[in-house]
Amino acid sequence: MVLVRPRNPADLPGCVEALSEVHESDDYPHRWPQDPAAWLTPENMMAAWVAEHDNHTVGHVVLIDKPGALWVSRLFVRPGHRGSLVGDSLLRQARTAGASMLDVIEHSSKAIELYERTGWTLVDTRPAEWTMSDGRRPVERIYRVDPHSNERA
Predict the structure, then answer these.
(1) What is the reported pLDDT for 19?
(2) Confidence band, pLDDT 50/70/90 cuts, at residue 153
(3) Phi and psi at residue 59, to the nearest 5°
(4) Is the CB of residue 141 less than 8 Å from the CB of residue 102?
(5) What integer pLDDT is reported at residue 147 of this predicted model?
(6) What CA–CA distances, in Å, run from 39 to 33, 47, 113, 115?
(7) In contact, 112 and 142? CB cutoff 8 Å
(8) Which of 132, 147, 26, 42 is nearest to 78 (CA)?
(9) SS (H, E, C) the chain
(10) 73: Cβ–Cβ under 8 A, 6 or more apart, which residues?
(11) Which of 85, 80, 73 is nearest to 114 (CA)?
(12) Residues 31-78: tens digit of each pLDDT
């Protein structure tokens, strides 16, 4: 069984380990941060949660405050735990806390499937504010959801 709970400082090493697996598997984040623990704790962070299975971190999500909305960020699930509703559980927690927006680059098809399956609606596409290591600016897909609506099954 997976437990989603608030992240605490002692969780960061396990989160970095899980993020490393995701980076190797999915190239997320595209550029490995110099300080991964700091990357997992952005300045505008309102809250963070981990998903645990057998006392191991298997997923993570952050809620960030941007003007006008709370956004889902730093969402990832260890490759070996995908398909077990970990991502759904983390998104549900973020929605319960008021998240209504998220962004994802367009080549992240598995993440896009998760968002659309769980009730998020595509509202915009735009060039990202950052560049890939090859200098290209990826296209971001912007999603919105009513944080108080019933989530799709």
Answers:
(1) 97
(2) very low
(3) -165, 165
(4) no
(5) 58
(6) 7, 14, 25, 22
(7) no
(8) 26
(9) CCEEEECCHHHHHHHHHHHHHHHHHHCCCCCCCCCHHHHCCCCCEEEEEEEEECCEEEEEEEEEEECCEEEEEEEEECHHHCCCCHHHHHHHHHHHCCCCEEEEECCCHHHHHHHHHCCCEEEEEEECCCCCCCCCCCEEEEEECCCCCCCCC
(10) 42, 61, 62, 63, 64, 102
(11) 85
(12) 899 999 999 999 999 999 999 999 999 999 999 999 999 999 999 999
Global model pTM greater than 0.85: yes
pLDDT at position 122 is 96
Show the tokens assigned to 24.
């190797």
